[in-house]
Amino acid sequence: MGPNITAELADDAPKMAPARRNPPEGRIHHSDHGPQYVSPPLSKTMRNHGARPSMGSISSPRDNAAMESLMGIVKSECVHARTYATREEAALDLFEWIEVIYNRIRTHSAPGFMSPAEFEEANWPEEGRDDKAA
């Protein structure tokens, strides 16, 4: 989490996923057309870690509906419920909310009312998983 959306910040997530979750080759990294997402370092990181880039159509609200929905949930259930004294406090709270509540407890309709962790466990072979995340 940074004060600005930069190419370096956008490049962090595709680097963290392989280090934390050992996801399969061919996963998709979907983004909008922001300059931070078309940077050469991000393209190289995705190639090096087996992710396929995907960009939505310009001005198409359906392309980013899943992420917009996630951000709305994050804001309503986590961020707007508190006032943070520091950026670090906000980052820790967001990390805990995403890793514990959103990924492990909160059920989602798209994967059959399972949490993302339950869906991963049910659909990703044991030998392909590497449970390093909290």
Note down, in words, how this protein is organized.
- By secondary structure, the chain is mainly alpha-helical.
- 48% of the residues lie in helices and 7% in strands.
- The chain contains five helices and two strands; from the N terminus they run αβαβααα.
- The chain has helices spanning 7-21, 40-48, 65-77, 87-105, 116-123, and strands spanning 27-31, 51-55.
- The chain has a two-stranded parallel sheet.
- α2 links the parallel β1 (27-31) and β2 (51-55).
- The longest helix has 19 residues, at 87-105.
- The two termini are 18 Å apart.
- The relative contact order is 0.12.
Record the SSE blueprint.
Blueprint: H1 7-21, E1 27-31, H2 40-48, E2 51-55, H3 65-77, H4 87-105, H5 116-123
Parallel strand pairs: 1-2
Bulk shape = globular
Mean pLDDT: 83
Helix tally equals: 5
| Low-confidence segments | none
Percentage of β-strand residues: 5-15%
Number of strands: 2
Helix-strand category: mainly alpha
In N-to-C order, the SSE pattern is HEHEHHH
Distance between the termini: 18 Å
Q: Helix share of residues? A: 40-55%
Radius of gyration: 16 Å
Looking at how many chains there are and whether they match, the oligomeric state comes to single chain
The strand line-up of the biggest sheet is 1-2
Query: Biggest β-sheet, characterized?
Result: 2 strands, parallel
